## 1
Amino acid sequence: MSPVPEVRHNLCLDHAGVKAWLMEMDPEALQVLWSEADAVRQSRVGDQVHLRGLIEASSHCIRHCLYCGLRAPTEGLDRYRMKASEILACAHEAQRLGYGSVVIQGGEDPGLTRDFVAEIVQTIKRDTPLAVTLSLGERRDEDLRAWREAGADRYLLRFETSDPVLYRRIHPNLPGVPSDRLAQLVRMRSMGYEIGTGVMVGIPGQTWDALAFDLLRFRDFDMDMIGVGPFLPSPRTPLGGPEAATFLAPPDEQVPNDELTTLKMVALTRLACPDANIPSTTALATLDRANGRELALMRGANVVMPNVTPVHYRARYEIYPGKACLHETATACQGCLEGRIHSLGRRVGKGPGGRNRTEYKNMSASDFYH
Ligand code: SAM
Ligand code: SF4
């Protein structure tokens, strides 16, 4: 492996420094942040943009997350669970389009059983060169181990917020099962998964302090993949209606769910976690359809997750309304994204695009719970 070039930046990334950068509004100062993040991205992960084919396998969910349109209490949603043959067809489509990996995502759906998922993973790994990422919520260790043994390479599980009080409010436990996404992430790493996490920016109740701690947590846990997107209110949910006002922090403490703050968080994430894979998220592309994808790629991101779910299922996977790229076929998405990537002078990544780790820290959950 060639030596990693040293990139120096003078930005102070302790809690106070991160918070100050998140709140910075001076365009000249921000230009420094953007160019430092882009330089670190270029030096540490290069000009390739890795494309991961997103398969939205199931819109069934047993959880009650207060922000998500798929939550169990949502009525009037025409829910679906794709057949194994449909999921496999999506994986082959991703391979045909030249993508190096697929992400199989869904609600926390007990109908996606251990054996059902394991067989799909095993078949994809047998029949294609694709890396497989799973993002199926909080699952028992037995499931996670079986999927890893079947060949799954990576698991995405956003911890959503590092503020424990806010987390408990917006992400209620299932009866008798305390939710601890960070602990699951640490266990998955010890099972051999690459682990991915992330947060929403601007959840009602999220303070600047909390968002700055989120960033430090990405770094302290040495996350392999980090997705940061704006919170987009869904009218089907408690946080998308009048109840949201009761969650808001005082105005000078509440983080806005806007593009600028999200981009600052993407840039700071690149500086704090220089060799992580960082997507330009669909939520940001939804907020700014014209430039959202490009701006994130210019400010630290190096991954895009084009949707390869059959178009007739996509509207039924409504996390929030008006999602970008809802009606484009997988082929149209690929053409559009490749054009956008080339327009930035970047190129589409080849192969699975795993993390090129330049440092490994052996950690356990107990190291971080004080
Ligand atoms: N069920 C799995 C889970 O929760 O990890 C995967 C699917 S879930 C829909 C994927 C991510 O969507 C969540 O981790 C959350 O960050 C994001 N999300 C949910 N509701 C959202 C909203 N209203 N605005 C922006 N992102 C949202
Ligand atoms: Fe279910 Fe994930 Fe949505 Fe929570 S965020 S309701 S676990 S799909």
## 2
Amino acid sequence: MRGEWWRTAAIYQVYPRSFADGNGDGVGDLLGLRGRLPYLARLGVDALWITPWYRSPMVDGGYDVADHRDVDPLFGTLGEAEELIGEAHALGMRVLLDIVPNHCSDRHPWFQEALAAGPGSPARERFWFRGGDRPPNDWPSNFGGPAWSPTGDGEWYLHLYAPEQPDLNWNHPDVRDDFERTLRFWFDRGADGFRIDVAPALVKAEGLPDLAGYPGYLPWKDQEGVHDLYRSWRAIADSYPGDRVFAGEIWLPDPARLARYLRPGELHTAFNFAMLTCPWEADALRAVIDTTLATHEPVGAPPTWVLSNHDVPRPVTRYGRDGAAFDSADYFARSHGTPYDEGLGLRRARAAALLVAALPGSVYVYQGEELGLPEVEDLPADALRDPMWARSGGTVKGRDGCRVPLPWSGTRPPFGFGVGRPWLPQPPGWASLTAEAQSRDPSSTLALYRAALRLRRGLTGGLTWLPAPRGVLAFARGDRFACVVNLSREPVSPPPYDGVLLASGPLDGGLLPPDTAAWLRLGGRG
Ligand code: GLC
């Protein structure tokens, strides 16, 4: 495996509950994932990022962690996790885990102890408990409603997410020590790094001031003290052999603030959410690319390119609605269930895949993206599991639609996901989208991803924009490679080229049709 592999890696996000079910209970698990590792190696990814597999009551899909140093029985055992890491390594893939430091589960022994110990007890200092007859400030929960819940004994506790996810107090030495132990625990077991959940939220503004009138960005985000924490984490990662890395989940509107997390001695990479939230428009995408490159370069960190994850509607559906970029939870209220053009969305999603895979840096693929899966927006209300649904009083359907179990094979649900009834229902019409069906079809989205991930390994050098008509993105990497993406409404002539390496759709008499991308071999510039 290459040195500093993370600078150019293609990283595949596994949401284990929905990836593959090995034991037949309808829920994806480590057994299922282990059985599919050859598929991932064949896809051509360099690393996996596996979302939380720890002990959890699963109120928020495992982001409510009750024990970070054990595997939930729903997924398997710690021994299986160790075997899985070894098996992935043997196939040439690194493994990133997902660490959740902002909060834990309300079933975590610390929170149980804090509740039992009562107001004023030292056990409560590991969290944010405050007294009073009203919530201590005006902070909202990300899942709707206030960020404070009453304990029933005269106090309130802070939870930026669900009430079952109490926020930890990072000023407390126990919290710091325990997470450092967790890092070492998994590094010792071969983990190659961690994705850090809600990375900028750990440190809260002194005095927990109201949001109304707060002079900075948000009183619970991007506070200066958080950088010290990541410097100490980085020192731990660096003390291990073999390039152990961190990828921060950092949603911040200002890319310059994001880049501060990537300074030498801090995190290695951060997800590029500007790309994921960008509408399908040439000028907007070019601006994101330019800003990303310009803000990462001075800190020496590689950009990452992200089109989807387990929190956002799938690109096929997003891009199939003009002007409906995913920018916030409001998307669900605004766009969910409104008509969209699935054919158009798929064409654009395929073109977007070639765009991001051609850019310098590393690229993420969320499970099912390589199959061109659409968002499932018609899940019945009684099937929905995302806490957003209940917290919004049934107005925001939330994120279950991108978490539907993968279709692997066959013509009917459960499409080879397992033998049991999947925990979220799959659309009956997914037969043509299975990995098996797409493996046989050279024009499938799976075939496109396989080819793109193979070819991108040969790409080197920075990005040079090439002259292009309005609505068209064209850039070179080195002298011999160009990527051209047509976001205009007309077919366009690509720049002079020697051959087409890969295209997201057929060229038409040498012209690149709308919503299509091509990778071209250039003749060389002497
Ligand atoms: C992150 C995760 C999301 C989770 C939240 C709380 O944003 O990606 O799935 O709900 O953090 O942990």
## 3
Amino acid sequence: MLPCCAVRVCHVLMLVLCLSAAEDFDWTKNNHDSFYYGTFPTGFSWGAGSSAYQTEGAWDKDGKGLSIWDVFSHKKGKIQQNDTGDSSCEGYYKFKDDTSLMKELKLNHYRFSISWPRIIPTGVKSDHINEKGIQYYNELIDHLLENKITPIVTLYHWDLPQVLQEKYGGWQNISMINHFNEFANLCFERFGNRVKYWITFNNPWSVAVEGYETGEHAPGLRLRGTGAYKAAHHIIKAHAKVWHTYDTLWRGKQQGLVGISLSGDWGEPVDITNQKDIEAAERYVQFYLGWFATPVFHGDYPQVMKDFVGRKSVHQGLGTSRLPMFSPQEKSYMKGTCDFLGIGHFTTRYITHKSYPSGRSGTSYFTDRDLAELVDPRWPDPGSEWLYSVPWGFRRLLNFVKTQYGNPMIYVTENGVSEKMSCTELCDEWRIQYYKDYINEMLKAIRDGVNVKGYTAWSLLDKFEWDEGYSERFGLYYVDFRNKNKPRYPKASVQFYKRIISFNGFPNQREVENWRRKAVETCSSSNQLLAAEEQRSTAANILRLIHDPLTSHMEMVTEIVVPTVCTLCILLSAIFLMFLLRRN
Ligand code: NOJ
């Protein structure tokens, strides 16, 4: 017989083994269960989202300062069709109408962001506070609360004050940390008595990679191999500082929560029996979500990032890694600075290992990862080029978060799908399918034990989709951007999402199928309304062109002559074809 203390030791060892096993995500187990009918936990929060630059418009009204997106979108060739967010959905003026739409959906929360230059025009608090901007957000928050909708407020959804970019180089400069902290502190002071959910940064991955590495987003810098890492470093530190500010100065009286919203595509190994593919897939996720999540939960960058960027930097003959380091004090300051984790998730990739030589030329965040991304051609891809519908990837990502970061409280802060601009189809069955399947995978993840507290459909309205301008529509509500009143029309998905919210889940196959059918029925009347409105505005445009003495010849040609000639050509070809068919 084993002595008692030996049994104890064995127990402890087994416990340690179990615990450490629980920490590991199992890459070899990918179960695609069938649809699960059931409900979400009581109190689960349903919402929809937006962001300031994408919806507010009023870019130069009531004392607002310029943001980097105002400046970037005004440069020719940066945005599809040279679109800008100047007026966008006119959300600044229409927030009461939009609240009615949220009520119609029976939303529990609304996620929006505060435009930093709207309330601090130069970005520096001691320069000037724009009270009119403060008043706008006060009214919005009050109105939401009067309608029993909880505000979830993002402090930074990409619209840095332009002055900070010009003076300091934006997120390349360490001074952003203090300026952002001052701005956040002002928000806590002015709005914190009513706002209880704060998100410091939205999708810092995009800010760093697309703003400072590829230059597709504002401020449009291409500092390959270094810019993104440096921007991210300052953003992570700024997040931690703001969390501490809230924790020491405001939490006691305001009792709110401060989190960060990270975006993460899922990366699935091409071959789950191949260790190299598994490691490559893990690297993909660590370089994406882990880059930001690991510091805020564990106090440092993922080991695999430090190893890969470090080794490549050595090969490139650099004295230090291109990935900056945190000091021991910074590590303990950062660790645990996340009351809840916001997850923005849209799509998945298959990942396989691929080595990139680490020569000096061609260094980039992308080649640092040593992997290749693949997609399955059978995956549906209704809108954005990058967005394939792969619902099971969502459950995998949520389970990964659970195992890696100690099962934190999660709010899904973005999930949804787009369609192309040319499509004025309100009967968005593919979006219904996307929401149905993704929300179902989230329900399965909750049953797996993932601590998801709320879900935010992205987005409430069609809006300015960054470098894609208005060419991609993510909204539950269609916005007619050609009409200066920017009217909103419900897509079929509004009805479907509303049913999920009312039932707090999915009752049974027959009922859910009924929801889909009914939703699609309602949209044909909205479609007619939209079509009638479009005809009316086309007629009004023609009249304007005819009556306006300054109408340019070009406008006349593109707006009237070309469509008329095209229609005539189609008609003539059809008649000709019929004639030929008859003769044969
Ligand atoms: C993430 C961004 O946070 C959001 O602003 C954008 O609309 C969606 N991705 C879709 O591209």
